Amino acid sequence: MTTIRQRRVGKGTDVAEDQPLEEKNVKPDGKTVSGHTGGKLWNILSVTVGGIVAISLGLLTSVYVATLHENDLWFSNIKEVEREISFRTECGLYYSYYKQMIQAASIQQGLHGLVYDNKTESLRTINILERMNVYQEVFLSILYRILPIQQYLEPVYFYIYTLFGLQAVYVIALYVTSWLLSGTWLSGLLAACWYITNRIDTTRVEFTIPLRENWALPFFAVQIAAITYLLRTHLQPIQERLTLMTVFVATFLFSLTWQFNQFMMLIQALALFILDCFDMLPTAKVVWLYFIQISGLLLVCVLQFFNSMILGSLLISFNASVLIARTIQKNLKKGGLLNRLAKLILHVLLVLCLTLLINKFIKKILNLESDEHIFKFLKAKFGFGATRDFDANLYLCEEAFGLLPLNTFSRLSNTLLFCVYVSVLFLMTVAAVIVAFRNLSGSNQVQFMEKMEECTITLKPAAAYNLIHTVLFGCLALSTMRMKYLWTSHMCVFASFGLCSTEVWKLTLKCVHLYTSQRTRVIRYSVPIITLLYISYKFWPGIMDELSELREFYDPDTVELMNWIKSNTPNTAVFAGSMQLLAGVKLCTGRTLTNHPHYEDKHLRERTKQIYQIYAKTSPEDVYRILRSFGTDYVILEDSICYERRHSRGCRLRDLLDVANGHIMDGLGENEPDLKPSLYPRFCEEIKKNLPSYTVHFTRVFQNKTFHVYKLAKHK
């Protein structure tokens, strides 16, 4: 076990953008007075200062997470094998392809090795570029090879510094989004500060560097910033075209770098659909965004050699269904309230039915089953029947795929983030409901319009989009803890926007009959400044203490195992074991694997379940037959899995295997009535007794406190 021991910027005048120049700034002959010139100079100065602050905060965040990573592992001082072991589970698998490309004799040979890979899954040749999202590793390795930096910078540092550099892009994108929404860069400053002070809940880049989401989320944040700008009114045609291009590039890069992109963009498409139904976004821009999502995903599909999982994604089916339904129901947004509601219900049902039909049709043609484990997991998670499916239960029992812990909210409240967020969310949601009702009713009564004036100002299209975005991704985070990073970072944006928004404060003060323009202006700036001072006072000392705390990577058992494998096994040896460990074996030793953590393939999932019989109650003959069918030469057993205590009974890996095999689980507790005792003892325990029935097939060749390695006999 591993232990750690001691040792682009938007303009600052967004709010006034949609309003005409006041007459007092214009002379009768049409020439502006000097006050207007002074205002322009002030705006330029504000944008310049805001841009400098954004870039500075982005760079400081990169340095901050890089320093934490160094201080936590003493990365600059540990051995190469220890650095590689620190890339745990799937992180190590992804980094291994970067290392493979770097070590290849040429770029062409490196690419050929990825397209025709026979070391990731034994007895199978797979296309890594099709199966996995590793184009970023390919691009980075080529960049490292062609740049004259080899003698100054090690490959691993080029890799991790790139990821830490993307954090600067991430923070700047959050900053700009908040600035665009509120009209002041003070809002962006507050969003960035909240992102940093809530680091535990906003990012995990410093200890899971190669994880796909750390590549993808900065591009997703850029896309949201670009959409926020796109939804402003009175954009010039050139501005709109450039913004659409930015949205497309960001969408494409986000899709290219993360295998779960289609599910995130499906939620985004659902947000656009909801807002469009209630007439809260410009229809033409919504249609453009639908096409951008489809085209970006299809381009990724081409680059991934027509990956069937992309073609069968719900996103493509949903967006196509929405566009088809729009052509069928051309008069969707005409009529009175009841007429509109009836049309809307019919429209939603039509889109839903079309989505299911198109998706089923595509999957039937392509014989697609790669993502079935995700839907089995969702079905079991949300209570649509218990399951004994091994893959679904494997996800259900992982903490990362459970509900968001309640202590998350107490941590977020300590920085005032969650308190402000909930207040702004409540106010904006009420405004959104009223505006949606007004849009559906189509009322033109003057009295009604006057009552709704404040809500209309508060809920501009960009604000409406960010509202529904944060609500939907909040629901996702609450249901699945691993997805909280999509929500908490946007929470920083949304809360800071609300605290610095003229419209939000105007609506609030009007509700308590205290509104004046001067009071609104004072509160708009004073409250965020006070909040920033509070955050600085309370959390700056803790950040300094965190940066001064020195630790060291320490995992001698795994280091010993990897060194033994490199020194005592042939390069062609095939290893079986847990998915997490084998990713490290591939990275550190280059040996061939039987299975690995990239689980988005049906054949791999079936193979993994069979190999995991080494931890089930199975006969030595059956285990030997299974392992040899995959060409296994060595099997690695881990005591941490065989005698697992991290999970409770029913969620230990051995329990999942017992239930899937129809066997009674170990230990005290209830069992389902149809489960029966196994005829054989648990393999991983019994093999250590060196009984003849085991030694005839398996010979122990390595052992330490954590791992046991057995060599398989080669019977004729």
SSE class: mainly alpha
Radius of gyration: 29 Å
Q: Helix share of residues?
A: 55-70%
Shape: globular
Total individual domains: 2
What is the mean predicted local confidence, pLDDT? 90
**How many E-type strands?**
7
The largest β sheet comes out as: 5 strands, mixed
Distance between the termini: 38 Å
Uncertain spans: 8-33, 444-457
Order of strands in the sheet with the most strands? 4-3-5-7-6
What is the overall number of helices? 33
Q: How big a fraction of the residues is strand?
A: under 5%
Please give a structural write-up:
This is D19L3 mannosyltransferase. Keywords: Glycosyltransferase, Membrane, Transferase, Transmembrane, Transmembrane helix. Belongs to the dpy-19 family. The protein is mainly α and about 725 residues long. The chain folds into two domains: about 165-550, no CATH class; about 555-710, Rossmann fold. The protein is built from 33 helices and seven strands. It has a five-stranded mixed β-sheet. Helix 27 (about 580-590) links the parallel strand 3 (about 575) and strand 4 (about 590-595). Helix 3 packs across helix 4 (about 105-115) and helix 20 (about 415-440) packs antiparallel against helix 21 (about 445-460). It is globular and about 90 Å long. Residues about 10-35 and about 445-455 have low confidence and may be disordered.
